[in-house]
Design brief:
The chain is α/β, with parallel strands linked by helices. The chain is built from 13 helices and eleven strands. Helix 3 runs parallel beside helix 5.
């Protein structure tokens, strides 16, 4: 499984693991991959600083990365900083009425949480500033090409910069703007994703950016066989996400007691690609909450970041309810293979073992 990215990052396996959990990220790095901590959940730069300090101390000196959500275009001056003023009252009313219909109780007094500010450009920049005070080796941007000055800032500090792409033209643009690594995120992926499946997208992007730019295959990867397939398509490694939700370490973050029930019973058909989570197309677990947004009286999702601010309190209430029939969670179609909760180290070991068995089998077929 070893590729040139292993030497470039000082890792044993070219398995990059995106996760909002520092416990999962650290465990993946300790197991030989590269754990990449998603920073969007951090509304407070000081909290992120504490978590990255924990990462520094709990990865056994092994490398890790961070993932931010930053649009390339900087918001224009004069825009109101109170974004809630741009959310229509009718949208707020519909959300409240829908939660009532679904039987989702309000949060106990004092337990509400401010909207996820990590979706805002200014907060994402603070995430970068904090990260550079620690020792990540990679910074990835979930919204494509970061601003040019951010790319230069990270590269000057010795970090590689990665960006997600859902089409070859996006990958070409990323490279033209200085991005080091392209993440070819196929249609099957959880969270933000495009319309092209991984089997087609990965080789298209590999061919589009040429042999000198590493490509990570992403979307629907949850087994060693799928890693082997991605590398056969030309990828230099894989970017994984959903499979780490089904790990014991993720329980340190997850607050919804119904989440495990929801994904353990889900099939690969039980996801939906929709704009209701952030305002951009993202794949979520299909539940009564996602179905409500398809009803005739449902409003159209707002653009990013307004949609996330609109539904953030609803998601907090849903998570606190513990109802697996309502849960709102980004997850890829690989959820159909997430049938048990296991330690991160075991998941990594199984990925590697199945990869090696698959390559050996292919070698045998080629030798016939």
């Amino acid at each position: 499984m070893r590729t040139h990215l292993c030497d470039a990052f000082g890792i044993e396996y070219p398995i990059f693991a995106f996760t909002p959990s520092e416990h999962v990220a650290a465990a993946v790095s300790r197991a030989g991959g590269l754990g990449v901590l998603g920073c969007v959940r951090f509304n407070d730069a000081e909290e992120l600083d504490r978590v990255l300090t924990w990462m520094d101390e709990n990865t056994d000196g092994k490398p890790y990365g961070v993932d931010v959500v930053m649009p390339m275009k900087v918001p224009t001056e004069g825009t109101s900083t109170d974004l809630s003023t741009y959310i229509p009252d009718d949208h707020k009313k519909w959300v409240d009425e829908t939660l009532l219909k679904l039987g989702v109780p309000p949060l106990p007094e004092g337990e509400g949480r401010e909207g996820v500010l990590g979706w805002l450009h200014s907060m994402a920049r603070s995430h970068v500033d904090v990260a550079l005070q620690h020792r990540p080796v990679l910074i990835a941007n979930a919204l494509g090409t970061p601003p040019n000055d951010v790319i230069e800032q990270c590269q000057a500090a010795g970090l590689k910069v990665a960006a997600l792409a859902g089409a070859p033209k996006h990958a070409v643009s990323h490279v033209a703007n200085g991005v080091d690594i392209i993440i070819a995120q196929g249609y099957e992926a959880g969270g933000h994703t495009g319309e092209i499946a991984s089997m087609v997208l990965t080789p298209d992007i590999v061919d589009a950016v040429g042999p000198d730019v590493p490509v990570l295959g992403a979307g629907g990867i949850g087994s060693g066989r799928q890693i082997a397939a991605s590398l056969a398509l030309g990828a230099a490694g894989v970017w994984t996400g959903s499979i780490w939700l089904g790990t014991e370490e993720y329980r340190n973050l997850a607050s919804n007691t119904g989440w495990e029930t929801a994904f353990l019973r889900a099939t690969s058909s039980d996801t939906v690609r929709t704009r209701i989570y952030t305002g951009k197309p993202a794949r979520l677990l299909k539940t009564k909450w996602t179905e409500a947004w398809t009803e005739e009286d449902a409003p159209a999702p707002l653009p990013m970041p307004l949609q996330n601010l609109l539904v953030s309190d609803a998601h907090n209430r849903i998570n606190a309810s513990g109802d697996p029939d309502v849960i709102s969670m980004p997850v890829g179609q690989i959820v159909g293979r997430m049938n048990e909760v296991r330690p991160v180290s075991e998941v990594v070991a199984d990925l590697v073992a199945e990869f090696e068995a698959t390559v050996k089998k292919l070698d045998g077929i080629a030798g016939i």
